[in-house]
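Reposting from the mailing list since nobody answered there.

I have sequence plus structure tokens for a pair of proteins and want to know whether others read the tokens the same way I do. The first protein:
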Amino acid sequence: MIRPRELGLSVTAFAARTPTLPPATHTNSYALGAREVVLVEPATPYEDEQKEWIAWARAMASGGRTLVAILATHHHVDHVGGLDVLSRELGLPVWAHAETASRIGGTPVARYLEDGDEIVLGDEAWRVMHTPGHAPGHVCLFEARTGTLVVGDMVASVGTILVAPGDGDMAVYLAQLRRLAGVKARLALPAHGDPIDEPTALFERYVAHRLMREAKVVAAIAAAGPKGGTIAELVGVAYDDTPVHVHPIAALSLESHADKLVREGRVARAGDRYVVGSEA
């Protein structure tokens, strides 16, 4: 693993170890801007990694780049685990969407990001895109001149993205993936894995994969008969193409799919059981 990793004249990546979901082991932070710099993803909660992260940031400052702020794409622990320490040590304000700000405890947020906001860094203008679905306050950043898109946890170049009940909304997530595909970015920078050279194709594959899984969820519920099935009973059928050891995580995704189907009237819920049809 190379770090820091220069991705262009104005983008640097720094992968730090975080308590993230496998197969990922690290979360990418990004320094955006050739002269004025926003640091995206104050991710690591580990002291040794935080020291390396701070040294990386301070080296940019000593090289003539002015640190402006720390930005969190969303509130999950593998993205904000170092927020308090890193912002305090570097003396930087925190920027985030209001939905993220409400979920990160007492950390003060200096700027509330909204869909359509612009973050101007010298010759670059990064447009804020509010992209909920994985998390309520999730934001992406798009720089139209270079076609670069910071995607946080909307997609990854390793594994897939969990859309969990509570924080996640499968219908909204799919809609936002389609929206991101419409941007026609030339390069996507994910929180997990390497840069993505053909992001539009990946967004479309993610949508297709989710719709495939949704069809398997419907089939599993139908096969369970008139009494339907619980999440624990359905997961082995709907995810029969995945290793058993990942079924606990798959069960969360299955529940998000099932909840979407309930809202659409294609599946009904009776207690902890799901049945096909509009009435349980």
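The second protein, same order (residues first, tokens after):
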Amino acid sequence: MAWKTMDVQEQRVRFVVEATQKARTFRALCAAYEISRPTGYLWLKRYRELGVAGIAEQSRKPHGSPWQTGTELERRVVEVREIYPDWGARKLQVVLARAGVDLPRNTIHRILLRHGMVRSAERYPPAVQRFERGQPNELWQMDFKGPPKGWPQPAGPLSVLDDHSRYLITLAANGSTQGAPVQSSLEEAFQRCGVPDAMLMDHGVPWWSMSSAWGRTHLSRWLMRQGIRLCWSGIRHP
């Protein structure tokens, strides 16, 4: 991204450092980092036992898969797929059931995935609904784009998009991610298009600050004073 964002491990390192300094109560510290106290104690425990490596994101993959389909059933699924290479899991389910192999469609699909027998176009079901707001100005999406090749400025352009119409409201070459140029661009956009009901953003500057108790910055507080409801995407999910 064009700006500095805090990844999960950096957030945890800062947390345990502040926790060991005891500058504020543990309850207040957990609230500032928007985590529960049991989670905070878990990070501290891992840090004391294993150091910085102990508070890295742990794999949630189970050590075993007791419910994984047996080898013989997998072999039957693969054999049928080889006979009907253009058929998906739904049709294969019918053929297998006729042979006495009763497997859910999702299980058949996972078996095909494990054996590399699913083409990329078959991996995900087609979207049947557009998840968009019902009217213009119900939600704007704001983000800094990564600088394209040959871009003459250190920061990429600021983009503001209307969620309903997909109309590009703002595409501004501000030259930086400072809050003042962003506010100036938004003021001009509000005059042209009106003020939105809500805005969706990620956890990048200038609209989010990890040093603030609730992540608020001067820009985000200014947006709230305009009556705009702020929505935040997941961390590291722009």
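Reply #1 (J.P.):
I read it the same way you do. The chain is about 40% helix and 10% strand.
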